[in-house]
Amino acid sequence: MFVFSQDTAINYLKGVGPEKAKALSSELGIQTLEDLLYHFAYRYVDRSKLFSINQINHQTSFVTLEGKITQIQEIGTGRKKRLSATFQDQTGQIELIWFAGIKWIKPSLKLHTTCQVYGKINRFKNSFSITHPEVSTQQNTQKVKGIQAIYPSTEKLNKKGLNSKGIEKIITELLTKSRFNLPQTIPDYLQKQAKLLSRTQALKEVHLPSNPTLLKHAQYTLKFEELFYLQLQLLSLKKGRKQKFKGFTFEKVGHYFNTYYKEHLPFELTGAQKRVVKEIRTDLGRGTQMSRLLQGDVGSGKTVVSLLSILIALDNGFQAAIMAPTEILAKQHFQSFKQSFDQLGVDCTFLAGSTPQGKRSDIFANLKTGKTGVIIGTHALIEPKVQFKNLGLVIIDEQHKFGVAQRAKLWSKNKKGLPHVLIMTATPIPRTLAMTLYGDLDVSVIDELPPGRKPVKTIHQYEKNRLKVFGFIKEQIAQGRQVYWVYPLIEESEKLDYNNLMQGYEALSQVFELPHYKIGVMHGRMKAQDKAFEMQKFSEGKTDILVSTTVIEVGVNVPNASVMVIENAEKFGLSALHQLRGRVGRGAKQSFCILMSSYKLSSDAKTRLETMVATTDGFKVAQADLTLRGPGNLMGTQQSGILDFKIADIASDHAIISLTKSYAEKVLEDDPELQKQEHFMLREGLEKRKAQQSWANIS
Ligand code: ADP
Ligand code: MG
User: Fold this and answer.
1) 458 lines ligand 1 (CB under 6 A)
2) Is the confidence at residue 367, as pLDDT, over 50?
3) Which of 370, 269, 233 is closest to 313 using CA atoms?
4) pLDDT at residue 325, as a whole number
5) Around Cβ 462, how many Cβ atoms within 10 Å?
6) What mean pLDDT value characterizes the chain?
């Protein structure tokens, strides 16, 4: 019997030669036997559950059927050749189809003999079929009964014989033919308290489930393990930061804050804004560096919160910087902040790529002497030439556009200490996810919109109603409204993208003719200045319709624009749709978002459009998005790594997330350095995980 340790290289396993080992490593990162055991199924098929043919409807996906093949024939010739079999049970019949491997499949099919077929139901016109089903005669069905794991694989692994079945085979080999004992990762007392299986048993059951109950228990155990370690890691990261980074203490709230609050604030703060301002005030006065994420849906009023935070910095003799991801956004911030700072007699400057060299030396000098209190700009702020007298607070808008490295560069702009950092994001993420994603940050949430907002009415329209939509838009324009008209980004080809947009623009120009209607166009190939120019024209009301790709940036604010039309809305992700919709609904008038789509909708696309129509609540949208896509795709690549869960599912494992968090807190409270004997394994496990992840990327 083969005895192994979890660190044994995969090629020592029977059935895995050097070639397969190499492919497993390059394709899935599997190098050791432990890695292999942590390659989990993405779904399970309960093959003991039989369907009858008349139960199949258009929602059915995978089925196992029992019956007889009554007819076999080859249809077509050459590349179009396919093998078709008629399969019958007592309730009806269905077609089985093969396009490849006909030569060896055909002789294996036995007519009029009871057999089971397993596969995915396809629907063509109004009849159902199964393409490339697995067929087994009764004698060998015993083996396939029960729950079977289906593993993710790749094209390349498929070619090497490691499709789901192939992977199942080597895992089965490992689990059944070798002595198998893994070191514990969870202390005994915790395993008992949380009612977990042993690690060894959990891994066995998750791959070769004895029954559904044990499978669930095994999954629970492994999710617990994964999330518990994540929580330990996040908690120690946070603790480390708090200890390491002493910060400036902004102890007073003074003249600037009070004057603005009492005399210039144009509205009463919402309850959520008040709460968040308080959280920030407390944090700034604490003596440790603030590193806070301010999260709030589009339009929730983050800007005024950041303004008040800046005023606290000024009151304590510090300067502040605001960094936005694009020039358009930075300019817009500058315009809206400038007025407030002017009222208070604070010098506020703008700096971006377009700032002429001639103006720069003055800007730099005034920052250095402290004459300028606040600077607003783009990445340009990061440049070494930008030096401050006493930078105390950095505000970063729409953080997901900035890399972490860029954040760090701004931090280093005060030699006396680390400036406080407030990151504002409109990407609504559920709170548990935010905590998990930004474990090293504190999170403040504005979960309330200013009063009197009219929710945007969202309507889904199919192509056939296009004329009606045109009519509606004309009415809106006649009432003085403006319209965004967005075409999808076709990722594969910038050129296609552009053609698509231009075709749309031409078609619209025929319907909305000059001189009655003015249409502007904006796309990714244009220079920043030209984009800004188009945007400016639109915001001044000189164009009625702005046709564009998704380059209309998050955060752009044109209150008079009250209609958003999105073409091929089925091609957009939920968060993109929500962000786009956030461009309207900013004024006093009723706003509309019209989602145009073709008839052919995948079920995911349908859910996306239905979600948009059903709710304007960013958190609900985000939750739906999370459920549809899984968390890995939510934030773009920068956070991947921390979200590469092997088995946990952030969208649905809320209960385990909070449970593991409280266990992790208890453990660290009791034993902060993990020095107790029973926690030794935790320390080792953490070290191992740290080595595996490139934490440099996220902290
Ligand atoms: P975002 O969170 O998207 O950055 P903004 O800060 O731009 O939102 O605020 C959106 C609009 O709501 C702005 O016009 C702002 O003046 C207004 N606003 C913000 N807070 C309030 C409030 N408490 N009451 C009324 N209007 C508000
Ligand atoms: Mg904003």
Assistant:
1) no
2) yes
3) 370
4) 80
5) 12
6) 85
pLDDT digits (tens, 9 = 90+) for 92-110: 999 999 988 788 788 888 8
pTM value > 0.70 = no
Residue to mutate, 274, 293, 294, 300, ligand 1, most ligand atoms under 8 Å from C-beta: 300
Nearest ligand to the CA atom of 329: 2
Res 497: pLDDT:
66
Q: How far is CA 172 from the centre of its chain?
A: 34
What are the residues whose beta carbons fall under 8 Å from the beta carbon of 317, sequence distance 6 or more? Answer: 390, 392
Q: Is 298 in the pocket of ligand 1 (CB under 6 A)?
A: yes
Our answer on whether the CB atom of 296 is closer than 6 Å to any ligand 1 atom is yes
Domain 255-446, architecture per CATH? 3-Layer(aba) Sandwich (3.40)
- The CATH code belonging to domain 48-144 is 2.40.50.140
What are the domain boundaries of the chain? 48-144, 255-446, 457-615
| Cα 117–Cα 123–Cα 125 angle in degrees, nearest 5 | 140
Mutate to test the pocket of ligand 1, among 303, 305, 307, 336 (most ligand atoms within 8 A of CB): 303
Would the CATH topology of 255-446 be identical to that of 457-615?
yes
Predicted confidence at residue 429, as pLDDT, reads 62
Ligand 1 pocket member 301 (CB < 6 A): yes
Highest mean pLDDT among 158-172, 405-419, 493-507: 158-172
**Per-residue pLDDT at 139:** 52
- Phi/psi at 661 (nearest 5 deg)? -65, -45
Give the CATH H-level superfamily of domain 457-615: P-loop containing nucleotide triphosphate hydrolases (3.40.50.300)
DSSP E strands in 138-209: the ranges are 147-150, 178-179
**Which residue's alpha carbon is nearest to atom 4 within ligand 1?**
302
Q: Closest ligand to 340 CA?
A: 1
Task: Give pLDDT, residue 641.
Answer: 38
∠ CA 299-304-309, rounded to 5°: 135
Ligand 2 centre distance from Cα of residue 557 (Å) = 8
Contact 72, 85 (CB under 8 A): yes
Determine what percent of the chain is predicted with pLDDT higher than 90.
47
The arithmetic mean of pLDDT across residues 654-663, rounded, is: 88
Q: Which atom of ligand 1 is nearest to the CA of 298?
A: 3
